[in-house]
Design the sequence.
């Protein structure tokens, strides 16, 4: 039985050229009813595709036509059906963000990689951090903080000196960005079931923005984050190059 493949690509010329060649060679089905969706681009486009297709049961297989490609497989026009049939699957649950702003508005978004809070003015942010309703840090003075999934732990979280989490660890990484007080605090590893809340202290004087996979919300007063088990992104990788292997390999480079 032949696979029904739906292709999508970023606007980059190299991705559009790959889309044309692969569609001509293997056909291009509509995403509704497809057996698999093949995304051509970089990690940013892969995240966009996963968000856009979160209600579609078909898994997503990425091929790198971008610059980073941590969530992508190597590009080749040859043997695609065989690669898809032998691919390994990783299931990723995103984070659900609920942000309350100083003007009383409320914003919700999902994040596959991380939810980050960043100062939006010249002064450092002051954050109160609670986990499951219990205050764990009364005041963190910093440039920001973020909560990352295992899939996102090698992205912004790793750049901020946070830990890399195994894909099946059922954990989240809470990481400070340029902590000033307490200066040596780098963060914590929390269970996937935890709900993390940030309260912005002196929000009018020290404005803070929140971001969930590119969805930005300015002038936040409170941000509540939890894992969303009802959304499960199915991502395919070539054998031996799955997300778990990449997370382990990244720690030895």
Sequence:
């Amino acid at each position: 039985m032949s696979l029904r493949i739906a292709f999508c690509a970023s606007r980059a010329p190299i991705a559009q050229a790959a889309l044309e060649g692969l569609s001509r060679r293997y056909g291009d089905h509509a995403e509704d009813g497809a057996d698999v969706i093949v995304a051509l681009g970089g990690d940013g486009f892969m995240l966009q595709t996963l968000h856009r297709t979160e209600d579609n049961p078909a898994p997503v297989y990425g091929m790198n036509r971008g610059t980073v490609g941590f969530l992508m497989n190597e590009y080749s026009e040859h043997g695609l059906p065989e690669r898809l049939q032998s691919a390994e699957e990783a299931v990723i649950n995103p984070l659900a963000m609920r942000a309350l702003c100083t003007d009383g508005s409320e914003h919700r978004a999902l994040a596959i990689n991380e939810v980050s809070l960043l100062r939006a003015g010249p002064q450092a942010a002051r954050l109160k951090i609670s986990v499951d309703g219990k205050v764990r840090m009364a005041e963190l003075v910093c440039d920001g903080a973020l909560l990352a999934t295992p899939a996102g732990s090698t992205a912004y979280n790793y750049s901020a000196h946070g830990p890399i989490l195994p894909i099946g660890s059922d954990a989240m990484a809470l990481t400070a960005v340029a902590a000033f007080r307490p200066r040596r605090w780098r963060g914590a590893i929390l269970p996937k079931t935890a709900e993390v809340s940030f309260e912005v202290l002196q929000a009018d004087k020290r404005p803070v923005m929140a971001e969930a996979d590119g969805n930005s919300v300015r002038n936040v007063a409170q941000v509540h984050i939890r894992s969303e088990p009802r959304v499960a992104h199915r991502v395919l990788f070539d054998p031996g190059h799955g997300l778990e292997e990449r997370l382990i390999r990244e720690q030895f480079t």
Remarks:
- The chain has two domains: 5-92+232-250, 95-227.
